[in-house]
TrEMBL record:
Compartments (UniProt record): Nucleus, PML body
Regions of compositional bias (Polar residues) in chain numbering: 1-18, 40-76, 97-109
Name the record gives this protein: Tyrosyl-DNA phosphodiesterase 2
Sequence ranges of Low complexity compositional bias: 77-94
One example of a Gene Ontology biological process annotation: double-strand break repair
Keyword Coiled coil: no
Molecular function per GO: 5'-tyrosyl-DNA phosphodiesterase activity; metal ion binding; nuclease activity; single-stranded DNA binding
Region of interest (Disordered), residue spans: 1-109
Gene of this entry: LOC107700662
Keyword Iron-sulfur on entry: no
Length: 394
């Protein structure tokens, strides 16, 4: 069991007794109280990766997953509300418990420096000329897209997890970042640190999605938010029309309705996503990424993907190592007592009508390493995908 110094918690009110919480939050609250009492530290190794390939998705596994519904929620706990209220005044990590001998300003400066250091790491100016040229050459020919449900609804060890998140963002410097389960406090922190990105958020309240565009690589042309008329969880579809290396792109993200019991609403939302993808300007390459909460049988129920829309993971040959983005056989943040492996997070692509400018080249899962506090950054893995431009396909 980790010490308090290794797993510092954000100052917040304690959650009420579990009988006052919805079922899915009750289970998470109970798990949080007893979390890590019996440690079984697990990390991804070739052996565990191989073991994962034996897990096949079936309806019974989906039922187990939806019973806990831990991957997303529709009700915020008082602890989260306290966290969000606090963060409207200062970045959330400024609420971390610190030794009483430190002044508030010292704590704030220390937190800010720590987060800046996590994001920027070894600065670009410290690299050799050869390293700079190699990085610039590689970046110029690729569009990198990162999609991640970052689970900011769960406030357990949030300060450590946000710091780890910033470290991953800084490491990969994706051109486009698509986030789900973002909350106002975490948004404020990311905006304060990631000055090199433009932020487009799907909402201002509760939890929501966001599109982040790297300013020196992607230029925003226009944006809008499509509402899902029958959602009960406040879900929507943010859309950004952008220019990348002079080529027009349409970027979309969403967090489709959660839990197996909401399958019909989720499929209604998926149809709407597909409709907007198909109706995007013909000269635009369209990339959608998000937490779809989809089970494979649900896509089959709709007759598969529409003509012209492709699943990026399938386009890359269905690599087993990047299949399961919600994997409780390895990720124990939620302490779900079943080994459940599902491909909730997906990327879709619709090529431009003429001379398609982008093709997927690789897909990698990130966030696979535990932090020092014995938590992963999120209960989901992030998906990092590289697209190669048409002029570099040869």
């Amino acid at each position: 069991m980790k010490t308090d110094s290794e797993c510092t918690l954000v100052t917040a009110e304690q959650s009420p007794p579990s009988q006052h919480l919805p079922e899915h939050l009750e289970k998470r609250s109970a798990g949080s109280k007893n979390k890590k009492n019996s440690q079984k530290t697990r990390i991804l190794t070739p052996a565990t990766s191989l073991a994962r390939s034996s897990h096949q998705e079936d309806p019974s596994s989906s039922q187990k997953a939806s019973a806990t519904c831990a991957q997303s929620t529709q009700t915020e706990s008082p602890q989260l509300q306290s966290f969000q209220t606090q963060s409207t005044q200062t970045p959330p990590i400024q609420g971390i418990h610190s030794p009483s001998t430190e002044s508030k300003s010292t704590q704030t400066q220390h937190s800010s420096f720590s987060l800046q250091q996590a994001y920027w790491g070894r600065s670009f100016t410290d690299q050799s000329t050869d390293e700079q040229e190699t990085q610039s050459s590689s970046r110029s020919s690729h569009l990198t897209v990162l999609s991640w449900n970052i689970d900011c609804l769960d406030t357990d060890n949030i300060s450590h997890r946000v710091k780890g998140l910033l470290s991953q963002f800084g490491k990969y410097s994706a051109d486009v970042v698509l986030l789900q389960e973002l909350v106002p406090g975490c948004l404020t922190t990311l905006q304060n640190i990631m000055k090199d990105y433009q932020f487009l958020q799907g909402s201002e309240d509760g939890y929501f999605t966001a599109i982040l565009l790297r300013k020196d690589r992607v230029q925003l042309l226009q944006s809008n938010i499509v509402k899902y008329p029958t959602t009960e969880m406040g879900r929507n579809l943010p859309i950004a029309n952008v220019s990348f290396l002079g080529h027009p792109l349409c970027i979309m993200t969403s967090h489709l309705e959660s839990c197996k019991s909401n399958s019909q609403e989720r499929l209604n939302q998926l149809r709407r996503v597909w409709k907007w993808i198909k109706e995007a300007p013909e000269d635009h390459t369209v990339i959608f990424g998000g937490d779809t909460n989809l089970r494979d049988w649900e896509v089959k129920k709709l007759g598969g993907l529409p003509d012209g829309i492709s699943d990026v993971w399938e386009m890359l040959g269905e690599p087993e190592e990047s299949k399961y983005t919600w994997d409780t056989s390895i990720n124990d943040n939620k302490e779900i007592p079943h080994s459940i492996c599902l491909r909730f997070d997906r990327l879709f692509l619709r090529a431009a009508a003429e001379d398609a400018h982008l093709r997927p080249e690789s897909m990698t899962l990130i966030g696979l390493e535990k932090l020092k506090c014995d938590y992963f950054i999120s209960d989901h893995w992030g998906i990092l995908c590289a697209f190669k431009s048409a002029e570099n396909l040869d």
